Amino acid sequence: MKFPLLPDQASLGAGEVDHLMLWLMGVTVFFLLVTAGPILFFCFRYRRGNPTNRRIRDSGGFKLELTWTLIPLLVSLFLFGASAAIYFRQRHPPEDAMEIHVIGKQWMWKVQHPQGKREINELHLPVGVPVKLLMTSQDVIHSFFIPAFRIKQDVLPGWLTTQWFVPTRTGDFHLFCAEYCGTDHSRMIGRVRVMSRPDYEQWLVTGHQEEGPVLVGARRFRELGCSGCHAGPLGNSVVRAPDLNGLYGSVVPLEGGKMVVADDRYLRDSIMLPNSEIVHGYAPVMPSYQGRLSEEDLLAVIAYLKSLGKEPRQEGAR
Amino acid sequence: MDDERIGPTKNVRETERLHSHFVTREQQEDAATLGMWVFLATEVLFFGAIFMGYTYVRWSYPGVVEEASRHLEIVLGSINTGVLLTSSFIMAAGVLLAEQGRHRAAALALAVTALMGVVFLVIKGTEYSMVIGEGYLPGFTAQLEPVSRPGGGYYGALSEGGGPVPGHEELFFWLYFVMTGLHALHVAIGVILLAGLAWLLRKPQGISLNTVRNTGLYWHFVDLVWVFLFPLLYLAGHRL
Amino acid sequence: MHPSSPTLRTFAKVWGALMVLLLLTILASQFDLGRLSLAVALAIAVTKAALIVMFFMHVRYGSREVLVFAGAAYLWLAILLVGVLYDYASRNWLPGR
Amino acid sequence: MKATEETPTGENNYLTKHTLRSWLLTTDHKRIGVLYLLTILVFFVIGAFAAALVRLDLVTPRGDLLSSEMYNRMFTLHGVIMVWFFLIPSIPAVMGNFVLPLMVGARDVAFPRLNLLSWYLFITGGVVALYAILEGGVDTGWTFYTPYSTTYANPQVVTMVAGVFIAGFSSILTGLNLIITTHKLRAPGLTWFRLPLFVWTLYATSLILVLATPVLAMVLFLIAMERFWGIGIFDPAQGGDPVLFQHLFWFYSPPAVYIMILPGMGVVSEVITCFARKKLFGYPFVAGASVAIAVFGFLVWGHHMFVSGQSIYSGFMFSILSYLVAIPSAIKVFNWTATLYKGSISFDTPMLYALGFLGLFTAGGLTGLVLAATAVDVHVTDTYFIVAHFHYIMVGGMVLAFMSGLHFWWPKITGRMYPELMGRLAAVVAFIGFNLTFFPQFVMGYLGMPRRYHTYPDEFQFYHILSTAGASILGVGYLLPLVYLLWSLKRGARAPANPWHASGLEWTVPSPPPTHNFERIPDGSGKVYDYPSPAAPPPID
Ligand code: HEA
Ligand code: HEA
Ligand code: CUA
Ligand SMILES: [Cu+2]
To answer: How far is residue D240's CA from residue D233's CA, in Å, rounded to a whole number?
Structure first.
């Protein structure tokens, strides 16, 4: 029977987390020693019947109190700072990360790669490439957890959440669903297979081929009538709707004075809940697409919107 | 000095029964009053949680709330606010009268307060039926039994099932019904309490003064909740 | 028992003030003051509430303990509202959550 | 606080009347305490039975004992029962009810009838919750996360939620009673800073009970509304927000976990001072820390939501606040340690449990610091690391404190002594079994073993087997007291009024206390923890 002590370390961030964990363990052991040590010693030394000096000098109680308030306080602040810095990095994907779509449903993970390749309960990754997961759920809350990468993020219905990592080692690792989601929660597991880059390219072109999400998104954009209003700067549309070119990542002024960054969440909400954030200077006439767009299509449309302005505009969008 | 406080416990004087575990009447009354306040503190947080729900909806869909709010019966709502505020005044007066020993006048004040509570409830009921009549009772187009939604996911299933159109006005109307409904329940309880007290107060020593006071506190609290409900629900969107 | 006791006249004045405030809030709500609308509505509601608590509920005449418990309830409510709103407000601060 | 003339036991104590009616209609705080004791023990047995099934099932990676549905219902049952029907009422409703009025020199709690009502609500809530099990069981976990609980789980969720809702009101009433009793019924001369620490911690606990439980009540109510009518406030499909549910639930729950530790801290303060024969070191600091924990406990809820989709800035805020709430706990631990210094320490059963509490609470609390570190929590959240963290505090801390208090006040409650040797043996067995059960869970949690998993990859089996082995030892550690305490009811030696030579007003009355506690309301102006200098030898029995 195996009894591993530490999990595999297979991503860029994993080392950092383990390092912090080491510090935390140090603090834990240290404080356990400074409490348990004296307790055991006093219990022995001052056990009843043991003749020993018990006379107490009236010594500085207040100073003592101050010491054991301040030291933990400082230690705490240090731990907070160290962890917050890592947390911040964990939550901010680099701009150039490869984007993989993940949809959770009871009880499986559906994955689509940018080139269109799909898989279920498996995640093939090229080693050394920053990867960002764009995730949503079709039913309840799940959580995408790869212990070897030390990452986890809840996946919510009606939300887009993201997480990112850079795999550093080839091999097979566990993929777990970490948020309780019903009967087969414990079977919503899978395998992460990190491969060398050539192997990954090879794997992408084997088996069943599909269109990439950007292409699908472009088609949906037309079919759903988005292009009727959002016709681009040169378009000749009846309704005045904002130009979506280069929208992703820009700062959008909203009606009411708020400014928001057009991130994944913003794009999603703009389509599903157009009423919640109105772009300044436009009428709230955009219909909600809730109920008309499946999770997959939604992710595809968003992928398409993000491609606008990055690449030369696709003809299909017209 | 201590001996005065420790006196024999069976010595029950006047109308108010001194329970055996209290030493003085004042102690007993203070305990009851403070108890009432602590209870009201729990009520604040009970309602507070649903005010949080309201805050979420207003924060996320300000336009929706404004729009939906226009469909409530602002006139009835305003009248009801007046009724409740006035009843609170009469209640306060009733307590004052009871303190001065004018038990009949106090009984009358309490009865009027209860009556105004009833008026409030009647108006509320009218308002409900009007709002429902206009078709704003949400949800009943939706399924009562939760169904699992195979395959389609959240968005897919909704369009197929032909369920409610998600414009989020629903959220507002739900909040309206749940918040005012819970409030109305509190009013109803208050009415019953007040009516009972008014009845007992007919007799000079029918009920202890402190009970009247504490019931008054409860009534004012119910009023207080409404003071916030009214502008948040009814006045969110009535603009010229 | 208590230092100063309320009188019917004070209560009547308070009632008058409440009625005025009620009219005021209805009136104010009819104008679009932008984001100020909510602030005004809430300010008036808080004033009304304060009048009721202080006078009708005798907090002005009562003990400090009562004031503490009444205050605590609202403080705790504020903690809840602020904590959650902080989350909602800060979600858009930077791309990605 | 000199002992009043000791009236002979036997004739006229609170246990004298035997009719069922006299128990079911009692308003005596002592009897209600005993009623609570009996009921929470029943619930503990049910919760422990579920734990035993969970542990046995996890021996094999495939989960051969139970089906997945069954497993999920079992851990939900275990969590719900243990939290709301055992641990929360454990010390406050049993010992709080029994001891607190005695400690403050009162004849009863402020509102005895409400107190009885609270017990009936508790029973009703419990029966409703158990009915939910019979009806088919609930499998949401004790956290009832939406939209699973509102849309996908089976309809018994509503029944279960109703049970917890009702029990919540019983908690509120208990809290209210204890607060008012402490404010208004203290004996003359008994100022706040002369109160035993147990009273302080119960006061802090009650504050939380009263201010946090109503939020839970409303959340549960909204779940039911969502179930019945789909009001949608937590449902993203209708524009609601599932994370709002988490905010509201956790607004209640972290304060609630302090409900589940503060009373334990109080018991331990009483026991340590008594068996070290010293006054508590840094009394005002420990008292203040109790209230600080209660207040700060309300500011940390987001630390359960670091990966939930909450904004990272919220994450930062809740992380630092979680660190701040640890400081008062640290103050307490250090003051207890300092209390032992130059004491005259004896190792009776309550003291053994209290020492166990010190170690295990500290260990569990320190792992809480690991969880408060956002970056690490991302990895360990929803794994067995969490399970280990909270069992260290709740079982290693609070349950041991409960046992400590139970043994400490057993003579007062029943008028009988328990067999000391058996007591010490059980304490040691429980300590060993406990560590064997839950320490391996830390390791497997960091390895990535997710919680609420019915089946798991083979590499975790070794740790699961260790844990189950530990649980059987721990089980023995619980069964032993059950047996010898029952035995002592009939056969135990008669207890004197103050078997431990402890200070405190509750020891000035006979064991078991007379119905009205005090002949005359005692004088409370004596010093708290007024033990004779530890340098002097203790009085002999
Ligand atoms: C009685 C119950 C109890 C108590 C007292 C605590 C106390 C603490 N808890 Fe725990 N906790 C739970 C019960 C409890 N917890 C439960 C049930 C869950 C899981 C819920 C679920 O998901 O089902 C949980 C989960 C939980 C999480 C979320 C994990 C996750 O799901 O991702 C976090 C994160 O911050 C946390 C932190 C803390 C901290 C910082 C303390 C602190 O208060 C601890 C303070 C104590 C000490 C620190 C030890 C003594 C101090 C010293 C010896 C001095 C040294 C100190 C310093 C350097 C500061 N707890
Ligand atoms: C509040 C108090 C409390 C208490 C006292 C306990 C006590 C115990 N708990 Fe519990 N536990 C929780 C609160 C508590 N727990 C909560 C809140 C959860 C989260 C639920 C959720 O996820 O929703 C949880 C979850 C939980 C899990 C995780 C389940 C999962 O995530 O899949 C496990 C697994 O080991 C566990 C084990 C135990 C054990 C072994 C004990 C032991 O202390 C019990 C010891 C008793 C016995 C073992 C029974 C008596 C003995 C016998 C009958 C002898 C024979 C026994 C054997 C052969 C094993 N608990
Ligand atoms: Cu999906 Cu758990
Ligand atoms: Cu917590």
So the answer is: 4
CB contact D70 to A (< 8 Å): no
Expressed in angstroms and rounded, the spacing between residue A187 Cα and the centre of ligand 2 is: 22
List chain B pLDDT tens, one digit each, 240 residues: 333 333 333 222 234 566 767 777 778 888 888 899 999 999 999 999 999 999 988 888 777 787 788 878 889 999 999 999 999 999 999 998 888 888 888 899 999 999 999 999 999 999 988 888 776 666 544 332 333 333 333 332 333 333 333 456 778 888 899 999 999 999 999 999 999 999 888 877 767 888 888 999 999 999 999 999 999 999 887 655
Q: Do C46 and C73 meet the contact criterion of CB atoms below 8 Å apart?
A: no
pLDDT digits (tens, 9 = 90+) for A290-316: 777 888 888 888 888 888 876 443 433
Percentages helix, strand, coil for chain B (3-state, rounded to 5) are 70, 0, 30
How far apart (Å, rounded) are the C-alpha atoms in residues B212 and B108? 13
Q: So what's the pLDDT on residue D141?
A: 92
Return the ligand 1 atom nearest residue D380 CA.
32
CA distance B155 to A291: 4
Give A212's Cβ-side CA count (13 Å radius).
12
One-letter amino acid at B66 equals E
What residues of chain C, 2 to 61, have a C-beta less than 8 Å from chain D?
none
Residues D430, D438: Cα–Cα separation, whole Å: 12
- How long a stretch of residues is chain B? 240
Q: Which chains contact D through at least 3 pairs of Cβ atoms less than 8 Å apart?
A: A, B, C
- How far is A306 from D152, CA to CA, in rounded Å? 34
* Portion 203-232 of B in contact with C at CB < 8 A: 213, 216-217, 220-221, 223-224, 227-228, 230-232
Task: Say if residues B182 and B47 touch (Cβ distance below 8 Å).
Answer: yes
Contact between B44 and C75 (Cβ < 8 Å) = no
Give the rounded distance of the alpha carbon of D356 from its chain centre: 15
A98 touching chain C per CB within 8 A: no
What DSSP line would sit under A10-39, residue for residue? -BHHHHHHHHHHHHHHHHHHHHHHHHHHHH
Contact B159 A294 (CB under 8 A): no
**The one-letter amino acid at A61:** G
What Cα–Cα distance (Å) separates residue B47 from each residue in B17, B40, B66, B176, D4?
A: 34, 10, 22, 13, 48
Please list, residue by residue across D386-407, b when 16 or more beta carbons sit within 10 angstroms of its beta carbon and e when fewer do. Answer: bbbbbbbbbbbbbbbbbbbbbb
pLDDT tens track, chain A, 318 positions = 677 888 889 999 899 999 999 999 999 999 999 999 999 999 998 888 888 777 776 666 788 888 889 999 999 999 999 999 999 988 888 888 899 999 999 889 999 998 888 899 999 999 999 999 999 998 899 999 999 999 999 999 888 899 999 999 999 999 999 999 999 999 999 999 999 999 999 998 887 778 888 888 888 888 888 887 887 654 556 667 888 888 887 888 887 677 788 888 888 888 887 777 788 888 777 877 877 788 888 888 888 888 887 644 343 333
- Ligand 3 touching residue A124 (CB < 6 A): no
Asked if the ipTM is above 0.95, the reply is no
Place of tokens 């135990």: D492
pTM: 0.91
Q: Is A120 helix (H, G, I), strand (E, B) or coil?
A: strand
Contacts of B60 in chain D (CB under 8 A): 239, 241
Spatial CA neighbour of D433 closest among D497, D366, D345, D360: D360
pLDDT of residue B148: 31
Is D176 near chain B, with CB under 8 Å?
Answer: yes
The residue ranges of chain D whose pLDDT is under 70 are 1-11, 533-541
